[in-house]
Specification:
The protein has helices spanning about 15-30, 70-75, 85-90, 95-100, 125-135, 160-165, 225-240, 270-275, 280-295, and strands at about 5-10, 35-40, 60-65, 80, 110, 140-145, 150-155, 175, 185-190, 195-205, 220, 245-250, 255-260. By secondary structure, it is of the alpha+beta class. The strands form three sheets. Strands 11-10-9-12-13 form a five-stranded antiparallel β-sheet, sandwiched between helices. The protein has a four-stranded parallel β-sheet with strand order 2-1-3-4. Helix 1 (about 15-30) packs across helix 9 and helix 3 packs across helix 4. The model has no long low-confidence stretch (mean pLDDT about 90).
Length: about 300
């Protein structure tokens, strides 16, 4: 029997998250694993490498948080994490996702906004006009850190863009080309290991340009193309992910454009839409990965 930790955020509590944790624990139990919930408070680390509350390490950790420092500290102690700290970090910061995948996978044209400090702001706003001149209007402004379609804004002119940028002073964000052909619509491919295990189309009929279910979107079964599957697998490979939700927009002629990669994408909606229990596929992948390690020793 293998023992694991399901590592979650101590302060993020809601029925939506709790339900996913239960699914993962049930999937572990089905294959004879134990999966004990641990939070950042339980695993608080000393920088010299020790846990404040000393406890033997398990066989693996299922990292369902975005606390990169905690993930790095646990890896430093020798704990195998699914997903690894570097992979979570590259996905959590959307600018790092794009910088890592640029030149390898088609994406909407994207510009990293210059950094400022909260107490300085933007006394010179010419860079906003320059971004709009390159990307056209309307244009997407996307905070580098955000989930469930939040922190993503559609701006239609320079005034609207400047107002939004002023409100974001001190936060990392991107300017991104708006893909009109994919307005209110995208597709999510769920990757586990080297397979695309499920996919769905998301669409919004409320007038919101975002397709996320949380933003009021709907969903339906989707059969991804071979090109989309190859792109999703390549994205996960280059980012170092064991599993992820990979989101695509569709440009002119239906050309897939990678939008975002989610290192710990929620999977309840995907199950409702496709009948695929992603928790089970993730735990099966973990079990097989641990077997390969044991065989190579």
């Amino acid at each position: 029997m293998k023992n694991g930790w399901l590592i979650i955020n101590h302060f993020l509590q809601s029925d939506k998250f709790e339900e996913h944790y239960e699914w993962l624990q049930e999937a572990a139990e089905q294959i004879g694993f134990t999966l004990k919930i641990k939070t950042g408070c339980d695993l608080m680390q000393s920088i010299d490498g020790g846990m404040v509350n000393q406890e033997p390490l398990p066989d693996f950790g299922l990292f369902w948080d975005k606390d990169i420092r905690l993930a790095m500290a646990l890896e430093r102690k020798g704990l195998r994490l699914f997903n690894a700290a570097r992979a979570v970090a590259l996905c959590d910061d959307k600018s790092l996702t794009h910088l890592t995948l640029a030149g390898h996978i088609p994406m909407p044209q994207t510009i990293c906004a210059p950094m400022t400090y909260p107490n300085v702001g933007y006394p010179d706003m010419n860079f906003v006009k320059e971004a709009g001149d390159v990307l056209g209007w309307p244009m997407v402004i996307k905070e580098c850190f955000g989930s469930f379609g939040g922190q993503v804004y559609l701006v239609h002119d320079i005034k609207e863009a400047e107002d939004r940028v002023i409100s974001l002073a001190g936060r990392a964000f991107l300017f991104q080309q708006f893909v009109e052909e994919s307005r209110s619509c995208d597709v999510r491919l769920q990757v586990v290991g080297n397979q695309v295990v499920a996919a769905m189309k998301r669409y919004n009929t409320t007038g919101d340009f975002r397709a996320n279910i949380t933003a009021g979107g709907n969903m339906e079964f989707y059969e991804p193309t071979e090109q989309e599957k190859e792109m999703a697998l390549l994205a996960c490979q280059r980012l170092g992910l064991d599993f992820a939700g990979v989101d695509f927009l569709h440009g002119p002629g239906g050309t897939p454009l990678l939008c975002e990669v989610n290192s710990n994408a929620h999977f309840k909606n995907l199950y409702t839409c496709t009948g695929v229990n992603v928790a089970e596929t993730i735990l099966s992948y973990v079990a097989e990965s641990l077997k390969k390690v044991n065989r190579s020793m």
